[in-house]
Each structure stands twice: as structure tokens, then as C-alpha cells.
Amino acid sequence: MVDMQVHLAGTADGISIVHAACQAAGVPLDRAIQAIRFAELQHREAVRQAEEIESAVLKGTSQTFQFGNLSIPTEHIGRVIGSGGSNVKHIQDRTGSKIIGLEDGTFHVFAPSEHAVREALRMVQDSLPPVVKEGERFLAKVVSIKDFGAFVLLPNKAEALLHISQLAHERVRDVSDILKVGDEVEVVVLGSDQRGNIRVSRKAALETAPCSGAASTS
Predict the structure, then answer these.
(1) Which of 23, 69, 170, 197 is spaced 20 to 30 A from 11 at the CA atom?
(2) How far is CA 193 from CA 11, 138, 160, in A?
(3) 145 is in which domain, residue-wise?
(4) Residue 170 phi/psi, 5° resolution?
């Protein structure tokens, strides 16, 4: 699991925004400094790449643009772009920005003002699925039943897969024997698959104390 995510934004003159999100209870200062320094190196490389892109994208215009960038897990690129590019187009229309996504998960943002850059980056970040931690416990609601399991909705509105193998300690032949749409079921987060989909377990929840509807704390 990732302990800390660092997002930077700025121009070729330097960094103007630093945003750090800690996934754990805390991060040692030396590790935080190391992460920021590493992100700064990535920022410099992104600026170099962006300047090359900018010369092509903005060729023929005299307008001055601000620049920012954000790196996301590659499995979430499709979610940020949206069907047929719909989400990126929406962000561009709302902020007056130009957004360029790369295969490594880096999104470059060009906009007429720093405020527009910040807003576009925020909207890109908001497009990502909610973050949950492995081992967290939730009271989830069943939203659909499949042959291979059920999809449940967590309290933070994130959808998760409850695989048939994680329903009970004994073998389950039919998901409908245990669950139906609308049921509330206690689950424990197992993690995420390669596509970023959250996986949960009812079987693990049966082994620990019941929850009250919110994530457990340790």
C-alpha cells in the first residue's frame, strides 16, 4: 500500500503548489522530504516534456498559458478520461484548459491562469475512485448479484467486488443463497486488483467483531 502521494504543480520557473496525501497514520519526516524531492525531479522532467508538447499544441497563438501536472495510477487513466474522452472534455470546458494524458498516467494541464490550472487538477483528482485501506471494515449495501459474486457499495460511495469465494468459509454454490440486492453486509477490504477495483470479503468480516457502519480504526 502507498504511504504517501505527492502532487506538484507549477511552471518552468518553479513549483507553486505542493499537495501531500498520507494513506497511513503518519509518515517519517525524512521519507516525506525524500518523496517531495523525487516528485520535484518528476516535475522538472514533466516541464521539459510539456514544453515540447506546448510548442506543438499552442503553435500559432500569442496567449500565455500556465502549466501543471498530476500523475495517477495507470489503471485509473480510463476513468479520468471518461467514455469517448467525455470527462476530460468536461473538465476542459469548465476550466478553459487543455489537458494532455500520457500512457504513464501523467496528465499535463495548460490553462490561462494558475487558478484554472488548480481547478482542472482538482477535477482530475476528484475523478479518481475513493481511497480505502486494506483491512478497513465497512457495512456495505449489495447493489447487484452476479454468478461470480456481488457488487457492494461502501459508505464512501465506492463500489467493491465481493467474490463468491469470499462470501463464507464453506463453499457457496449460488450467491443468491446468501445475498440479495438491498441487503447490508459487513465486509473487510482485501485491497485492489490490477485494474484498481476494490476487493472485499464477508468471510474475513465473520472472523472479527461487528462494525457500526463506519470504517474501523486501529
Answers:
(1) 23
(2) 35, 19, 11
(3) 137-206
(4) -85, 160
CATH of the domain at 21: 3.30.1370.10
Count of Cβ atoms closer than 10 Å to residue 133 Cβ: 12
Q: Are 186 and 213 in contact (CB under 8 A)?
A: no
pLDDT tens column, 149-191: 999 999 877 889 999 999 999 999 999 999 999 999 999 999 8
Are 38 and 106 in the same domain? Answer: yes
Tell if the pTM clears 0.70, that is, is over it: no
The reported pLDDT for the residue numbered 77 is 86
- With residue 87 as reference, give the H or E element that holds it: helix 86-95
Residue 101 and residue 59 share a domain: yes
Question: How many domains is the chain partitioned into structurally?
Answer: 2
